[in-house]
Design a protein that fits this description.
Elements (H helix, E strand, L loop, with lengths): L6 H16 L8 H5 L7 H8 L10 H15 L4 H13 L4 H15 L1 H19 L4
Length: 135
C-alpha cells in the first residue's frame, strides 16, 4: 500500500511527514489510547445532564444514548471513537448488551450492512473493555 501513485496514500504520507515535523511524538499517536483519557460519566451525572432531571416527562439518559448510538452507526467508520464512547456511557446508564445490539442492528436497514457491521464490531470491543475493566 506504499504506492505513491495512489493519491490517498500520498496524502497520508504527507500528513505523517507534516505531523512528525510539528511534533515527533505524533508519529506514534493512538486515537484509541487517547479515548481512555475521557472517563465514563457516572450514571447519576448522565441522568442529571441529559435525563429526566429538567424534563420529567422526557426521555431518560439511556434512551437518548441509544438514539445517539443509532445515529453514530449511520456515520460508520468515521465515528469509531464516538461509537465506543457512547457504548461505554450507554452501559453505565443501564443499557444491556441486547439493547445495544438491537439499536445497531435496526440501523442496518437504514445505513446498510457495512456500517452496521463496523458499529457492531466497535460496540463489542467497547463492551469487552468495560467487562475487562480496561476502559
Amino acid at each position: 500500500m506504499s504506492d505513491q501513485n495512489n493519491p490517498f496514500e500520498a496524502m497520508l504520507s504527507m500528513s505523517r511527514d507534516w505531523a512528525k515535523s510539528i511534533n515527533p511524538a505524533l508519529e506514534s499517536f493512538s486515537p484509541t489510547a487517547f479515548e481512555s483519557l475521557w472517563p465514563t460519566m457516572p450514571r447519576e451525572v448522565m441522568e442529571a445532564v441529559m435525563g429526566k432531571t429538567f424534563n420529567p416527562d422526557g426521555l431518560d439518559a439511556k434512551t437518548k444514548l441509544l438514539l445517539t448510538l443509532g445515529a453514530l452507526t449511520m456515520l460508520g467508520a468515521q465515528a469509531e471513537p464516538q461509537i465506543r464512547l457512547t457504548v461505554r456511557h450507554a452501559i453505565e446508564a443501564g443499557a444491556t448488551k441486547q439493547e445495544i445490539a438491537e439499536t445497531i442492528a435496526v440501523m442496518g436497514v437504514f445505513c446498510g450492512v457495512p456500517a452496521m457491521s463496523k458499529a457492531m464490531e466497535l460496540a463489542n470491543s467497547a463492551m469487552n473493555a468495560v467487562e475487562g475493566g480496561g476502559e
